[in-house]
Structures
1.
Amino acid sequence: MLADADVSKAAKLAVRACFSSAGQLCESMERIYVDATVYDQFVAEFVGNVKNMTLGGDLDYSKDMGSLTFQRQLDTVSGHVDDAVAKGAKVLAGGRARPDLGPYFYEPTVLADVAPGMTVYREETFGPVVSVYKVDSDEAAIEAANDTAYGLNASVWSKDAERGKAVAARINAGSVNVNEGFIAAWGSVDAPSGGLGISGQGRRHGPEGLLKYVDTQTIAVQRVLPIAPLPGMSEQMWAKTMTLVFGVMKTLRQK
Amino acid sequence: MTTAPELTAEPTALPTALVKPLFDRGVAGGAPSVPIFAPATGHKIGDLPQSSIADIDRAFAVARHAQRDWAKVPVKQRVEILRRFHDIVLAEQDTILDIVQTETGKSRPHAFDEVGDVALNSRYYAAVAPKLLADRKPRGVLPVLTSVEVRNRPKGVVAVISPWNYPLALSASDALPALVAGNAVIARPDNQTALSALWAIDAADLATTAEHGLPQPAPTTSTTPAPAPPAAPSPSRPVSA
C-alpha cells in the first residue's frame, strides 16, 4: 500500500483479497505492508469492513464468508493466531473460532504488531488471517514483501499506475495485481498463471496452459540437394562452402 | 432443486438424487468407501466409492482407448464442445454452486469465482486452441531446399490431481486445455471435493453428447474423461489457485 493509494477502495477490496474461501485460496493475502502516512486510515477502515462481514453456511448470496474445510485447517489457524498473540501480536478483528455457526468456522482475523519469531510472520496460514505492517518507504515494503520463499501472488496499491507497475516488477511473485487483490491477474486467462520460488509448479492459463499438454513433432523434408558434399566434392570443400554460407546468412540477419 | 437437508433419520447435506448418480460415475468401488461430510454443517454428503489399483488400471485402459478416437476429432469440433460446456456450467450454476459450497464450506460469492474461472477458460481455449494447435512451418536449415513442419501431438492420457480448496476451477479448468489438445483425462480429485469434479465430468459428457448428437456415452465409451476418484485415501494438498 503506497502513500498515494486510494485508501478507502483498498480497504474495501482487501477484504475479498484476504478472505476469499476463508483464506483457503492459494493467492490470498496474508501480509499487508502499509505506508506510514496512510497506515492509520487504512487500518481503521479495513478493520471496520472486516468486522462488518457476515459469516454462515447458507447456500445463497447472503453471507460474506463461509467455513474452513477441515479440522486440521481450524487447528492451523487457531495455532497461528494463538502463537502470535502469545508473543505480543495484537488482534484488531476476529481471533476466535465460531462453533456456534458450524464446526470449522473461524472469524476473519486482522493482526498487528506481528514480529519475527511468530509463525504468521513468514509461514503460510492458508486461513482467514492477515497481518498489517507499517513501513516507512516503498523500499522497505518491497524488501519485506520479498522476505519469503513463496512467490505466487502479490498486490500493489497506488493511484499512479506506472509507479504501481514499477514496484510490481520488483516483487518476487508470479502475478502482481495493481489496485486489485488477485482476480485481475487470475481472471485474465490469456496470461499465464503460476508462482515463483517454491510456489506452484508450471503454469496454467494462457498458451502455456495448453502447450504443456502436447509434444512437438518436427518433420523435415529435404529436396533436390542433400545436406552433404555434392558428387565429386571433398569433405574439406564442403566444409569451406558451408562456412561461407553461414557467414552470408548471418550477414543477412537470417534466422 | 431443493437445497434443504432431507428430513430423514440422518440429515443429508445434498439431495441423494443428485449425489448418487454422480458418485456412480467414478471408476471406483474396489476399495472401501469413505464417508464425506459438509464442513459448514457437519451433515453427511454421502459415502464416496474409492478406487482400487484394478479400478485405476481399468480407468487408464478405457482412457487410452477413448483417446485414440478423441484425437481424430477435428480441433474445430472439439472447441464447439468447450463452448457447449461453457453454456451448461453457466446455465446449471445453481447446482454446482450448491455442490461447491457444500463440499468446501465456502460462501456463494467465493464459489462463483470458480464458475467464472471455468467459463473464462472454456471460452478462451475454444477461441485460441485451433491456432495454438495448428501445424507450424519454421525455417529449414537450407532455405527452399529444406522444408519443415512442426506438429503438436497430444501427450495421451493426462492425470489431473485436483485439490479441495477450488474444486471446480482446479479440476475442470486444468482438464479443458488437456482435452481440447486431444488428450484423455483421468480425474483424481480430493475425496472431500470429488462431487464437484464428478459434476464437471457429467457436464462435459452432456456437452459432448449435445455436440455429436450421440447417445449419452458411458465412461467406457466416452471421449470425455473416464474419472477415477479417488485413487488413494490420502488428501492432496492444494498447489495452486
2.
Amino acid sequence: MRGIPTALITVGPEASRQMRPPRAMYPKGFKVGNSLGKPGQRELQKKVLRDALLMLTEPARPGQVVEREYPEYES
Amino acid sequence: MSSLSRKCVPFTPFERDLAKSRVVLVTAAGVHRRDQEPFNIADDLGDLSFRIVNGDAVNADLMVTHHHYDHSDADRDINCVFPLELLRELQTEGFIGEVAKEHVGYMGYTMQLKKMYDEIAPQMAEYVDKKCKADVVVLTGG
C-alpha cells in the first residue's frame, strides 16, 4: 500500500505528541470538542482548516505538534 | 517523561498541488449520518467500527455519538469537529481540487488498542486509499 499524506488537527497535543504524527497542529487553547473553533466561528474554522492543509506544502516537521495562535477563538 | 512511540514517523511526502488534490476527512470525533447506526457507547471496550459519510452530506444529516468528550458544541455546529461543509467551500474557492465523495467517522475511544492498530486502522487506510482515492487526509479528534 502506498502512503497517504495526512495533516492532523489536535486539541490533545500531549497525547498526540506521543504518537509522533507526520504533520500535526494544535490550535493553542482550543478545548476538546472545538478542534476547528467554537460553534458559529465560521471564518476561524475555515482558517484552521486551511492552515491544516497548508502544512502539506510547508517545510515538514515530522513527529512534532506545531502550536498555532488564534486569538479570535476567545473573542 | 511521557513515552514516545518507537515506531517510525509515517511521513509521506506531499508532491502535488493542493488546488489539484482530492481531500478526505477522517475524524475520531464520533461523527456519523443520522440514518446510520450510532456507535455503541454501552460497550466499555469502545466501538471499533467506522462509518462512511458522503461528501455532499449537509450538516443536518450529521450527528455525534461519543461519550468521552463534551460534544455539545459539535451538536450545535458540526464544523467544530468535522468541517465537511467548509471543505466544500475551499473547493469552490479553488483552494483544494476536490472534496472526496466519501469520508470516515469513528469513535476515537477504545480499550482494544492492538486491534485498532493492527486491524481497524489499516482497514480505514485501505478504504481511504482505494475507495476515497485520497490525495490528502485531514484528521480531527474531538
